[in-house]
Design the sequence.
């Protein structure tokens, strides 16, 4: 007789769309890597907007079937390689790795399989929690501020949603260039963090609309994209750039569709950043090793606390990047 041995691990799963209450920590079968995959023992995983959108099934693009396509969420992971497929050349058992597993997911678990191209070697100077906080937020910060925004020394820069992962990493990218005047927008109870990180000016969005103060900026990086396009237009200096990396799908589409036309008449640029996953991991790792990048972590939490963590995320209470540590 042939017997198949099932190895059991803990994972946070959901089988229907909904809020944090639909998440359950259960025993599941340990995954086995395919030829081009790496089996990672997960040590830490962080939460992203995509996790929340897939959990609740909003916007409509995240609800492509009656039941969730990916029952285990979590994309930004850090851990130790346990096994590799026969065609994997870059990694071996024992390597410490990190990366964004978007479109495979599975990070809210003790083990996950990932395509080889989704991972990079973790810096020995990073904790697993710090490494898990970097991939998606770090890539959006680099690609928004540097690649698309082309931030320059001495400019006036504003980040909307500054106390999350993108804003708390992005401040270091701008400060490394030097001389910029930084403004961070978030809720009142997070403004102290922004000041500690080096933002010279802070705006409490619950009390003040930064697009309606008369102040203008050379570069706006928007994580929230929650205002009409013409509001951002009036907040830009001549030749200014507006870059969105997340927020309302309808308003992001407006930037994509109308931004180039408005730019022709105003000389101001509007861009939507389509995330290139893991493109700049080596760059971020280099900055971290040089002491030029610091990671602000909210947590770490335990996997068993995942409902509470997502509830906190839903209420906008995160301060930095929310990270779950997995034993």
Sequence:
């Amino acid at each position: 007789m042939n017997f198949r041995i099932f190895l059991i691990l803990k994972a946070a799963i959901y089988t229907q769309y909904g809020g944090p209450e639909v998440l359950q920590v259960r025993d599941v079968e340990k995954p086995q890597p395919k030829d081009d995959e790496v089996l990672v023992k997960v040590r830490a995983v962080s939460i992203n907007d995509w996790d929340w959108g897939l959990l609740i099934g909003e916007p409509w693009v995240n609800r492509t079937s009656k039941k969730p396509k990916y029952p285990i969420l979590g994309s930004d992971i850090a851990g130790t390689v346990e096994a590799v497929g026969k065609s994997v050349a870059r990694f071996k058992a024992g390597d410490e790795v990190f990366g964004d597993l978007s479109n495979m997911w599975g990070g809210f678990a003790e083990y996950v399989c990932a395509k080889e191209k989704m991972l990079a070697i973790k810096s020995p100077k990073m904790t697993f929690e710090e490494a898990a906080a970097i991939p998606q937020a770090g890539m959006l910060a680099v690609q928004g501020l540097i690649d698309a925004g082309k931030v320059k020394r001495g400019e006036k820069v504003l980040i909307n949603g500054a106390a999350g992962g993108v804003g708390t990493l992005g401040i270091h990218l701008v400060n490394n260039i030097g001389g910029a005047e930084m403004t961070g927008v978030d809720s009142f109870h997070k403004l102290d963090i922004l000041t500690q990180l080096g933002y010279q000016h802070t705006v409490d969005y619950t009390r003040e609309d930064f697009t309606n103060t008369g102040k203008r900026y050379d570069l706006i990086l928007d994580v929230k994209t929650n205002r009409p396009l013409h509001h951002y237009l009036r907040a830009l200096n001549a030749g200014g750039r507006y870059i969105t990396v997340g927020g309302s799908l309808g308003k992001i589409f407006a930037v994509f569709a109308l931004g180039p036309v408005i730019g022709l008449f105003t000389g101001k640029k509007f861009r939507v950043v389509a995330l290139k996953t893991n493109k700049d991991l080596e760059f971020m790792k280099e900055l971290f090793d040089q002491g030029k990048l610091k990671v602000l972590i909210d947590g770490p939490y335990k996997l068993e606390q995942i409902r509470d963590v997502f509830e906190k995320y839903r209420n906008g209470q995160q301060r930095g990047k929310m990270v779950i540590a997995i034993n």
In short: The mean pLDDT is 95. Residues 249-266 form the longest helix (18 residues). The CA atoms of residues 47 and 322 lie 6 Å apart.
